[in-house]
Amino acid sequence: KVAPPLAAIMALTELIEKSTAGTMFELSGVLDKGTQQLTDRVPNSIGLNAGCELFNLFVTVATHDLGVLSDFKDKLVRQGNQYIAEAALYSEKIAGFTNGFVKDGSVILTHSHSRVVMKALLHAHKRKRISVYVTEAKPRGLGLKTHEMLTAAGIPCTVVLDSAVAYVMDKVDFVLVGSEAVVESGGLINATGSNQIAIIAKYANKPFYALAESFKFRRLFPLSQYDLPTHGPGILPFPRQVPPPTSVTNGQSPSDDLKDAGPPVSPSAGSLARKSMSAEQIALNPEVDYTKPDLISLVISDVGILTPEGVSHYLVGMFAG
Amino acid sequence: MSSEQPHQTPQQGRESSQPLRSPKTMTKAERRELQEKQRAAKASAKASGQANKPATKQPEGGGEKSSGKPSGKQGSGGGPSTQAQTLHQRRGSRVGGDIPRLGGGPGGNIVSDLSSRSINPRGVRIFSHFGLQQKSGAGKGLIHPAVVRLGLLFSNFQITGANARCLATLITFKHVIQDYTTPRNNTLTRHLMNHLSAQISHLVAARPMSVTMGNAIRQLKVEISGVDIDLPEQDAKESLCEKIDNYIQERITVAGQVIAQSAGFKIKNGDVLLTYARSSVVEQVLLQAHKEGKSFSVYVVDSRPMLEGKKLLAALTSAGIPCTYLLLSAIGSVIAEVSTVFIGAHSLHSNGAVHSRAGTALVSMMAKQHSIPVVVCCETYKISETVQLDSFTKNELGPMNGAFSIFPISIPRESLATENTANLEILNPLYDLTPPRNITAVVTEVGVIPPTSIGTIHMALGRMI
């Protein structure tokens, strides 16, 4: 499977290829509709949007020497395909850069599952001995997938509870995470839990490296968690009406309730014994979070090893220069 | 006192009409005494003279640096009374230096105040570099009446704010250019430059130039020097006026509208915003967001002596935005409820620091402490190539009279400090510096950028600022 931004570029390239638009205007209309459909289909469209923005950049640059429409379309399709082919090699480049930061015997902490991080870890494993802690990354539990893949490759790997990150942080040499998007402020948008890990790493003075291909860089500027496009009133609200306390309806005295801590007495008390969150409860929680730039040590990408401040320099040069 | 003995020797030396010993051969104390005597002589000549003394200001300014040290060493134990007298006068003229002489009234009071002031070397020495201004002699070269008027408006603080001052300056210079005629055997490009420089010095003497004025004037000079030498004068003047209009339109008016829109995206329904003093750009942002139908409330934080927030409050409430007004000292009580802080800037420095109305640094610091995003709204023409690290090196002292003496009627006038008295020196710096670590985002007309990326703006603009 492919990273969302690349998938978006692929989709849009194909759209252009198959489109029968006759004029430039029609073509841009088709593109807009395509972008809209992509972003509407998926609840978390941050990565896809990155790809769409990049594709728009291609279009803008290509319109500078506008010739016949069919030539233009060919040029665009060719550029799209070329980019996709090149982008497949980006993660190799990043793995190479990351290798410079891995010392023999390093203990690395990573979060959830990321293709880029996987590649970097496997690359490092070829020449150096590393051990990896990976967080479970509930609710999707993708950390277990990482654990499987690393163990299969022969890298010693242990799954860490999300809440035990602070416990292991002092044992860790550095933290390596992937990204959904890297934004204008130099901050990181990644699976929920990354911000927490970054804060703990900062407190423990451990470096926090974010691996991101350049197509994940976006001209978005969230001021805080609550300024993310994925945030809304549906994320972690308080319930409108607090349900009445269940113990009263059974006519039991309060002292009995306290003794009956374990086995459920009333039918509705069965919910108290549930061990994991219900699907509705999980749906109220955010999928991605925003890590502020001052918590990130370096952003390692195919265009180079950037400081968080350097991300904006790159973005301005790329999109506005 | 040890200074007493050598006191005699240089005097005797002079009285016996021997050549004055070179300063190198005198002891430190002797040199000190010589300087004091020279200064006392000058000061007495000055005190008996007029209030307006542009010519003598320079040597005083030069001499005071060396006297600052000896007086500090002598301490408050005091020396001869003439010494104390001259120190007062020097200090007085320095601190009160930017009080306008042109006004007549306030300037006249300075001389009488001086004698009642006591030595306060430590406090004033820190800010001693603020008040030093090059006072050009009135009437040196022909000053256009519009420029004289503008100078008065500036020095009386009737036009304040980086944008307002720059706009006023550019409009005035348009008048100057239109009324200008090239003298014989001169080219417009060269002579107009000199002509304008004289006007500019007059304005700078009235009040130190803002960064916006500086950038605009620099651009104007570039345009003037680029004028085709073969162009007839009227055409050249018209093209210059047109260039000025374009500059205003592009970099102030339209830039403000773009910023209002970009910053508007950061305002959501139900937000509680906070702003400090009065920024014309922030006002635009808030009014635009309100016009777009967003519902939010605003805390307007204000501070003495300028109390500019009142004007902003009037503008916002008449548009129907629910506002709360408070003074800077109360900000701790409300900051926890705020969702975003919007501030304006007098200028932005290349290291991302924001030079803005005094008090802004406090507001940003408080917001940062509570993890509240601080958004600076600023056009690109406010960017200064310099790097500033603290509020000290570059600032301006405001006067404590005239436009600044706005008092609530409920408090008796006598209890408020309105002017310097014995043992009391009033300092009123107008600006302070907000370091980049306290700023979350900067909204310019070319995009929303982090404060560390100010250097990329010229790339985005595609031209020199």
From TrEMBL, chain A:
Pfam families: IF-2B (PF01008). Keywords: Cytoplasm, Initiation factor, Protein biosynthesis. It is found in: Cytoplasm, Cytosol. InterPro entries: eIF2B_alpha/beta/delta, elF-2B_alpha_N, IF-2B-related, IF_2B-like_C, NagB/RpiA_transferase-like. One of its GO terms (molecular function) is guanyl-nucleotide exchange factor activity. GO terms for cellular component: cytosol; eukaryotic translation initiation factor 2B complex. Residues 234-272 are annotated as: Disordered. Belongs to the eIF-2B alpha/beta/delta subunits family. Component of the translation initiation factor 2B (eIF2B) complex which is a heterodecamer of two sets of five different subunits: alpha, beta, gamma, delta and epsilon. Subunits alpha, beta and delta comprise a regulatory subcomplex and subunits epsilon and gamma comprise a catalytic subcomplex. Within the complex, the hexameric regulatory complex resides at the center, with the two heterodimeric catalytic subcomplexes bound on opposite sides. This is Translation initiation factor eIF2B subunit alpha. It comes from Thelephora terrestris. The lineage of its organism: Eukaryota, Fungi, Dikarya, Basidiomycota, Agaricomycotina.
Automatic annotation (TrEMBL), chain B:
It comes from the Eukaryota. Coiled coil: none annotated. Residues 1-116 are annotated as: Disordered. Residues 27-39 have a biased composition (Basic and acidic residues). It is found in: Cytoplasm, Cytosol. Transmembrane segments: none annotated. InterPro entries: IF-2B-related, IF_2B-like_C, NagB/RpiA_transferase-like. The keyword Protein biosynthesis applies. Residues 1-20 have a biased composition (Polar residues). One of its GO terms (molecular function) is translation initiation factor activity. Keywords: Cytoplasm, Initiation factor, Protein biosynthesis. One of its GO terms (cellular component) is cytosol. Belongs to the eIF-2B alpha/beta/delta subunits family. Component of the translation initiation factor 2B (eIF2B) complex which is a heterodecamer of two sets of five different subunits: alpha, beta, gamma, delta and epsilon. Subunits alpha, beta and delta comprise a regulatory subcomplex and subunits epsilon and gamma comprise a catalytic subcomplex. Within the complex, the hexameric regulatory complex resides at the center, with the two heterodimeric catalytic subcomplexes bound on opposite sides. This is Translation initiation factor eIF2B subunit delta. It comes from Thelephora terrestris.
